[in-house]
C-alpha cells in the first residue's frame, strides 16, 4: 500500500527580525589621524536567535556592540532594534548588557547588584523581590544573595553580571567577552549555563568572543569579522541540535566547524 503525504500546514511566517544594522560604520578621530573602526556593515538578527561575533583584536567587535547598545553613534547608516533607536530601547530597559569586566558595585551585596538596573530605570525593587531571587537562582547563586562581590570567585561575579543584565526582562542581550577572564573549565561551565538561560528565556543574544569553540557551541550563527578596516567577512550557520551538551566539544563535526571558522578568520582579505 502506498501513502500519499499531503502537507496541509501553512507556509511558516518569516521569522521576526529584532535587530537591523544597515550600512552602519564608525571612524574615530585620533591624534594620529582617523581610525576606521568599522567600515559600513549590514546585519539582521532574527528574534530569539543567538549570534556570536568573532574576529581579530581591533576588528570593531566592541564598537559594533556599543553602537547596538546606543552607547556609540554610527557615522553613517542606521541601527534599529525592534524598530526603535538603540538608545531609546536601552532606556526602556529592553537591552541587557554584560561586558568582560562585571563592574559590580563593591559595597552592594549580590541581591542589590542584580537589582541595580531596576533602580536606574526607576522601577520599584520590592514587587520584584521574587523575580530577583529567581534570577540569582537561575545563574546558580542561590544562597549567595547577601554576599559581597569581594567574597565571590571570578566566575560567580560574572554570573551576577549576567543575572543583572536580565533583571529588566530585556528582549535583547548584548554580551562582550563576558567569560574572557575565566579559565577553560569555568568558561565551559558558564557556556552551559548561558545556553540554559538563553533557552529558558529565548532572549535574542549577541555575544562577542575570542573563543571559536565558545562561538560554535553557543551560537545559531557566527559572524566572522576581519580588521583594517573592521568589516563582516562571512556569516556561518551552526547546524547542531539543541540543547547542546559537553560531548559536542569533542565531536568530529564540532572540530570540523571550528576549522572552517579558523579558515574564515584567516581567509582572503584578513589583515595580517
Ligand atoms: N574611543 C575610541 N577612540 C579611538 N579609537 C578607538 C576608540 N574605540 C575603538 N577605537 C579603535 O577602533 C578599532 C576597533 O576597536 P574595538 O575595541 O571595537 O575592537 P575589538 O574587535 O573589540 O578589539 P578587541 O578584540 O581587542 O577587544 C581599534 O583600532 C581601536 O583602537
TrEMBL record:
- Read off the InterPro entries from this record: AAA+_ATPase, ABC_transporter-like_ATP-bd, ABC_transporter-like_CS, ABC_transporter_ATP-bind, P-loop_NTPase
Query: Could you tell me the keywords of this UniProt record?
Result: ATP-binding, Nucleotide-binding, Transport
Q: Which PROSITE patterns match?
A: ABC_TRANSPORTER_1 (PS00211), ABC_TRANSPORTER_2 (PS50893)
Keyword Transport attributed? yes
One Pfam family per UniProt = ABC_tran
ABC transporter domain mapped to chain residues:
19-252
**Record keyword Heme present:** no
Which family does the UniProt entry place this protein in?
Answer: Belongs to the ABC transporter superfamily.
- Supply the name of the protein: NitT/TauT family transport system ATP-binding protein
Q: Which organism is it from?
A: Kaistia hirudinis
